[in-house]
Amino acid sequence: MNSKAIPLIIYEREGFRVTPESLEFLRNLEGKVGVIAVVGKYRTGKSFLLNRVILDNRDGQGFGVGPTINACTKGLWVWSEPVEIENSEGERMKVLVIDSEGLGAFDEDANHDTRIFLLALLLSSYFVYNSVGTIDENALQNLSLIVNLSKQLQIRSSQGPTNPDEIANYFPSFLWVLRDFALRLVDGEGNPISARKYLENALVLQKGVSDNIEAKNRIRRLLSTFFKDRDCFSLVRPTEREDVLQKLDNAPEEVFRPEFLSQAEELKKKIFTKVKPKTLNGQMLTGEMLGQLAIAYTEAINKGGVPNIEGAWTSVCQAECQKGVDDCMREFEQEMREISKRLPLKEEEIYQLQAEIGNKLVKKFKEKALGDSVTNFKQQLKLKLKERALVYKEKNERLSQERAQKELEAWGVTLQNQLKNKEITNFAVLKTTIESFSKTFRADSITKSMEIKLLEYLIQLYTESADYILASSLTEIQNECRRLYQQLEFSQDQVNRRKAEFEAEKDQLKRRLEEYERELCTLKASQATSAARMEDLIREKKRIEESYEERIQYLKENTSEKIEDLKSKYQDASEKLNSLQNSSQKQIADLQRDNALLRQELEFIKNEEIEYKRRRNEAESEAKELRNKLRNAQSEKTDRSEKTENNEPKIIYETNKYLSFAFEKLELRCQQLEEKVERLKKCKKLIKNCSALQCKICGKYLNSNVFSAHVIACLRDGPASIDGKLMIEVPQTTIRDEGGKPYTEYVISFSNKAKSWNVSRKYKMFCNLHSSLQQQFPHLNLPEFGAVFSQNSSSITSRKPTILEERKKGFQIYLTELSNMPIIKECTTFRKFIGLDFDPIPSQRYPNQDTTPPRGYKSRGKSVYDMVTTSRMFSDSSSPVLSPITNTYDIDH
């Protein structure tokens, strides 16, 4: 690729415009970017400085250079090939080189020059000002446009005049290059000085108070203020030949002065060593962000305003955030297209994959996002990810349904073939076949919709198969009836044929009788025999006729009974089919509910075990730490006692007393922890071995597997035994005397929807209540029994009514917080303290609940009322908190 100068910002009739070519070039730059901009009066050799010194182009290519008095460069141009360097701080980066339109051209005004100068300043990280000759008043006057910079620039919107010191924080490093410099760099005494010192001497304010001197000093002050990091470098004239000076870019290296070549090499090294990555508000800019910054500045100028740095930064941040959103969405689509090749997947699997991809992309976006709009763009990204994830979920659902439909249709064809081939001839075989396929299909199901599809298809298929079997049975019955009718007709034909035969035989007998009569005379001996034979034949005929009539009647009755029996069987089969459908739906609902309860219970038990182990480890660590502190304190006490044995016995006594008390507290805490462990083991063993547990809140008997989950829901949703919210107030106190010892009695008012009542309680009774609740419910975070309650009676008498008022308020808050805890509100200790009787029988509070134990329930000799407490003991919402060991006592007389 051939390197060339491309326009960065051009000036047209409508104003300044950032070119698409430069935006595309900047968009392809990755990583840190440094920007070197060269500015100076027109026809002073800026482009030559860029081409031969900075870019080292010796083939005549580079930024435009001309031999005439007309300016060659319009607007801002950038070199298309970044220079990769490593600066003095060891940073690897790409450096962009920008050439600017010459200042002071005949065809442009001062306002245009100021904007070119300002754009080069704002976009660069290293600003090079090119001029010819020495730094004198004319040279400084050429920089008079710097006076207008504070008017042409705003740090943020809606502000007054811009502070130059604040502007300086956004300006780049400044290098003044003096071309064709022929003087010696010496001070007033003839000692050699550096070019930087020469610049600083030129910026020293002149003495005087005239307007002319003030104008000159103003330029000097602004240069010193705007450019904190400034330097100067001088270059001798490249050659003395005028013909070469007009064609410097194409001149061979031999025509240049050796001194100029060495200075040019030194200047190049200085520039690339000092250049830094372009930053704004502490954030390093990429090429694309630099392009967005240029667009924001030019748009502000074109609208007739002034560039707003904070506004431009906001635009850059928003563009970067939008780019981050677009990049994340493209990556999401790419990964989801790869996942789509494996669809359909199980719902849990695709949910997990989408969640992992979404979390990864949101994290990636947060790493790249900038500015105050990160939250809005992050929400926008999450919303887009959610929408696209829903599309792929619907696609997965559609593919799973299509797969299920194909499998069901294929199996339906198989079942129809089995029915047609008489492999399934009754409902028992049909039921077995359908259940076998349903089990196999459910094992391979990946979504709930496939199971629903299966149920719908099975219902339809079972109905069609049943109709087919019934139709087949009915056809068989009809065929049997047809066969019986045919047999009946055949029998009737036989009877008719026999009857005809009998008639023929009768005629024959008549003829024979006539013959017998004619032969009567001759056959009188055989007359009796013939008559008897005639009577026998008649009886036989009658018997045969009766036999066939009975047979016909029997066939008719038997056929009717079979038809009625088949109709009855058809009706029974229909009822059985409906019953099976209802029972299957109920079983599915029960299984889903039981499965949810079992999962909740399993998770609950795991959380209990993890929480208990964590608390036990914390307690052991704390105990170990306290023992170490105790040993260290005892060692320190021994050392101090050797030094202060005669002078400070009281300190030793107090220290020993404190350590002994702390050790007792530590031992007591260890004992409490061991008791908690034993209670937990007994509780788990009791729950594991019991056949059923009764909830004392609602009175229901439940299986141990789901008892804990039920108790949590019951505590959350169930009504309290004390109707409504309990209102508590401590309106007054009374000082009483008993045996010469004064004590304070507190009158407490209680009220709720049902009634109101008053009780009187001593301070010591409050202490006993707190101690009892701590022992009874060590797993609960009880309200703080704070500093107000730790004052004894002697302090009350010394501090007068203020302590009593503080205690009244403290007791009122303490009792109110206790009454807001359902398990404390129901316990016997608290109810006795507030003057209420305790009703432990849940059936009285819940008269409509079924409290009859389930069949097979056996009492194990211990009430399960504490099961509520035990289950809450190890839940996340009731984490035990161990109180710190103190060396104060709560005393009341």
TrEMBL record:
Keywords assigned: Coiled coil, GTP-binding, Hydrolase, Nucleotide-binding
Domain PX: start-end pairs: 724-840
InterPro entries: G_GB1_RHD3_dom, Guanylate-bd/ATL_C, Guanylate-bd_C_sf, Guanylate-bd_N, P-loop_NTPase, PX_dom, PX_dom_sf
The GB1/RHD3-type G domain, residue ranges: 30-276
An example Gene Ontology molecular-function term: GTP binding
Superkingdom field: Eukaryota
Positions of region (Disordered): 616-648
Family the UniProt entry places it in: Belongs to the TRAFAC class dynamin-like GTPase superfamily. GB1/RHD3 GTPase family.
Protein's recorded name: GB1/RHD3-type G domain-containing protein
